[in-house]
Automatic annotation (TrEMBL):
<dbReference type="InterPro" id="IPR034694">
    <property type="entry name" value="HPF_long/plastid"/>
</dbReference>
<dbReference type="GO" id="GO:0045900">
    <property type="term" value="P:negative regulation of translational elongation"/>
</dbReference>
<protein>
    <recommendedName>
        <fullName>Ribosome hibernation promoting factor</fullName>
    </recommendedName>
</protein>
<keyword id="KW-0963">Cytoplasm</keyword>
<dbReference type="InterPro" id="IPR003489">
    <property type="entry name" value="RHF/RaiA"/>
</dbReference>
<dbReference type="GO" id="GO:0043024">
    <property type="term" value="F:ribosomal small subunit binding"/>
</dbReference>
<dbReference type="InterPro" id="IPR032528">
    <property type="entry name" value="Ribosom_S30AE_C"/>
</dbReference>
<dbReference type="GO" id="GO:0022627">
    <property type="term" value="C:cytosolic small ribosomal subunit"/>
</dbReference>
<dbReference type="InterPro" id="IPR036567">
    <property type="entry name" value="RHF-like"/>
</dbReference>
<keyword id="KW-0810">Translation regulation</keyword>
<comment type="similarity">
    <text>Belongs to the HPF/YfiA ribosome-associated protein family. Long HPF subfamily.</text>
</comment>
<comment type="subunit">
    <text>Interacts with 100S ribosomes.</text>
</comment>
<feature type="domain" description="Sigma 54 modulation/S30EA ribosomal protein C-terminal">
    <location>
        <begin position="130"/>
        <end position="183"/>
    </location>
</feature>
<dbReference type="Pfam" id="PF16321">
    <property type="entry name" value="Ribosom_S30AE_C"/>
</dbReference>
<comment type="subunit">
    <text>Associates exclusively with 100S ribosomes, which are dimers of 70S ribosomes.</text>
</comment>
<dbReference type="InterPro" id="IPR050574">
    <property type="entry name" value="HPF/YfiA_ribosome-assoc"/>
</dbReference>
<dbReference type="InterPro" id="IPR038416">
    <property type="entry name" value="Ribosom_S30AE_C_sf"/>
</dbReference>
Amino acid sequence: MRYKISGRQIEIGEALQTHVKSELTETLEKYSLRPTDGTVIFSRDAHYFVCEATVHLSTGLNVSAKGRATEIYAAFEDCREKMDKQLRRYKRRLRDHHRERAQPVEFAEASMYVLAANGEAAEAEPEDLQPIIIAETETRIPSLSVGEAVMQMELAGAPLLVFRDEKTGGVGVVHRREDGNIGWIDTSANR
């Protein structure tokens, strides 16, 4: 497994990198997962250290967690414990997903835009009401079943996930509702 361990405006020592690699590997091996690569980023937030970790699995799914504490090692341990809890919760489903899926998840490329929020930029908006694009990047849209999409959204800790439905081929969106339930928008239902 490849690791990318870095810090935002803080130095990350060799001892911390070794600790992160060994502990994260141990956590992932406990659930018999085949990770391909992991990214761990440390940063500061006032007097707290923040650790954000994302691990890409060979099945195409991602696991993400975020921890914070007053010491850098404790921030990593908080992050690792949250990832462990997510993996324990989804262990059976992850294994079943791997058995059912003979091939890794396929991804389609798409453009993603960041639009200007209300404020100074909105005052300069042209009369034709076209939004002002601040940034443009490429993103990947996975081909998943609805159950896999919900699991991926939960593992990534994301508020929503856009995916291509393997069964219908349509674009779908799963999202966390304010009442705590999961919403599913199915564009193939209106065809």
